[in-house]
Amino acid sequence: MIYLELFLTFLKIGAFTFGGGYAMLPLIQEDVVAHGWMELSQMVDFIAVSESTPGPFAVNIATYVGSEVGGIFGAVCATLGVVLPSFVIILIVAGCYEKFKQSSIVRGCMYGLKPAVVGLIGSAIVSVVATVFIPSGFSLAIFKDIATYVSLVIFAIAVVLSLKKVHPIIIICLSALLGILTGYVL
User: Fold this and answer.
1) Contact criterion met (CB below 8 Å) for 79 and 63
2) What residue segments make up the domains of the chain, in order of their start?
3) pTM of whole model > 0.70?
């Protein structure tokens, strides 16, 4: 039954990923593609849409994948699955905050989790960059395609603007506008 499969898949993702939506991205990509729910190139599009819409990234992408696979009820199952572990953990931690606050075990755990989260986010970045810039694998033929150059320019502009602390909404809108213009020109 697809609804139970969506719920359990996103429950596992929500339960075993620390660090927010971007840290979940490698697991989401792996599980969604492994189940055959969509191709990696579709995931990149869903990532762009999820990032561009209001709300938490993980909730947006779970809802979107769930709706693509199982309609409205699929969206509800996937979304509930991804948020339920965090909700339960927050309730437990909030109830025991004073005991956990000074614990050397908890501080050590958080110290160890930080680099792992950065590594997971880095892995997601590499995967998305590879899918966008070299979807057919690396070869010199990709440099003959004008769309590759335009994508690299948009990527570079987004990175520079991000480093200059330009608001993400402006970067997203500008990137979308450049993409639309490129689509009309090419």
Assistant:
1) yes
2) 2-134, 139-186
3) no
Q: What is the pLDDT of residues 111-164, one digit of tens each?
A: 787 788 778 777 777 777 777 767 666 665 555 667 777 777 888 888 888 889
* Beta carbons of 58 and 79 less than 8 angstroms apart: no
Residues in the chain: 186
Output the pLDDT for position 54: 77
- Ramachandran area for residue 23 (φ above 0: left; ψ -120 to 50: alpha; else beta): alpha
